[in-house]
Amino acid sequence: MQRVFVLDKNQQPLMPCQAARARRLLSDGKAAVFRREPFTIILLEREGGDAQPLRLKLDPGSKTTGIAMVITGKRGDKVIWAAELHHRGLAIKASLLARKAVRKRRRYLHCRFRPRRSNIQRRAKGWLAPSLYHRVLTVTSWVNRLRRWAPVSALSLELVRFDTQKLQNPEVEGVEYQQGELFGYEVREYLLEKWGRKCAYCDKENAPLQIDHIVPRARGGTDRVSNLTLACQRCNEKKEARPVEEFLKDDPDRLKSIKANAKAPLKDAAAVNSTRRALFEALQQTGLPLETGSGGRTKFNRTRQNYPKAHWIDAACTGESGAAPMIPEKLRPLSIRAIGHGSRQMCLMDKYGTPRTKPKGVKRVRGFQTGDLVRLVQPSGKYRGAYVGKVAVRERGAFDIQTRTNDKRIKITAPHHRFTLLQRGDGYAYEHPRAA
Fold first, then answer.
1. pTM attached to this predicted model
2. Which of 169, 362, 407, 413 gives 20 to 30 Å between its CA and that of 279?
3. What sign has the CA pseudo-torsion 357, 360, 366, 369?
């Protein structure tokens, strides 16, 4: 089970304690709840205290970053707190592309539009796209948060660098790095050669062939040649934006053949490569001792101890200090999902880029704001009982709460006076996985 963060009366971090001890302190009136997520208590009388060596370990990823807090004791290292931080880089990219499309369309329609910037400035050294820089900011933000709630004395980071050429061809060397799979080919000619100059879905030959995305762009597919194939017009129109698994569910042999010819997209590896140095430099600014380790060492440490593959377990096994961490059997990581603080867009647009909704109203209604963690007490009706979850406010005073009951997500609408604020929204959603 996860440890509980503890603060003294001056809000200085003390050693995390067992959940049972935290319950006793709360019931005896010696402590109060400081935060609900992650659960943190504050002592009402105690000031200061001794601290053991506490190391915060990170396994950065494109979509999910593993976090593990390890304590060093007489019996070795032990994981006392863990989390998996889910980024929203893809959502940021989608929002930027949607904004770009609206502006571009308005220019073509000769409507009122924002003019192009004429003084194009050079990007600063180390510039990262917003969807990538978000990953760096989110991780460093959580490192600083955890340092405020626990006496962290050292950091560990898996400093990964993927060789994308080696991922596709392990034997590549020398001048071959300059001669990739498109060397001497145009994209279309390469695809004709690769797919035998016929439709990948019906084997039609001697007909005009179109370039098709195996994983549709509408579902996150890329323009990389490993995600491109050839299709006749009939098959391309029939497939539309459906996944290839759904389109070929009645022809498993052909599906297997197409997947064998295609290669996995490398955009996740590219995202980690782009952010690794920026994250390393940001963590150096904390002034704490920073240990780094390779992905190969992390995998060696994990497999030698027969631990399953998970982001937070990889974090615990990072570097030299991850040679033999003890992971309690009942420990389950806290799931932290970045959801942002709402949209800056004042109103929604139609397909012509014209506003179709009223301007955005006030953010806070009756002391509540969308994203706050609240408790709802329903005295009667179908959903009678008490619920805890995120609230969505409305100006008329009737709020929505989304919560989980009996392994099912439900939405309940109730008047504002039945809600009690537990914690202000901080841009993240938290979920505790059920014990196995």
1. 0.82
2. 169
3. positive
